[in-house]
Amino acid sequence: MLHFAGDFILTKVLQLITEI
Predict the structure, then answer these.
(1) What is the rounded distance in angstroms from the CA atom of residue 20 to the CA atom of residue 12?
(2) Pairwise CA distance, residues 7 & 11, whole Å
(3) Ranges of H-type helices in 1-20
(4) Residue 1 has pLDDT above 70, yes or no
(5) How far apart are CA 19 and CA 1, in angstroms?
């Protein structure tokens, strides 16, 4: 579950960076 949460956060961060 921790791994999944980490991956989800990483994806969100990547999306935010891509948006900028």
Answers:
(1) 13
(2) 6
(3) 2-19
(4) no
(5) 27
The Cα–Cα gap between 3 and 11 comes to: 12
Instruction: Give, as one character, the DSSP assignment of residue 1.
Output: -
The model's pTM is: 0.33
pLDDT on residue 13: 97
Lowest mean pLDDT among 1-5, 6-10, 11-15: 1-5
Between CA 3 and CA 7, with CA 19 as vertex, the angle to 5 degrees is 5
How far, in Å, CA of 17 to CA of 15, rounded? 5
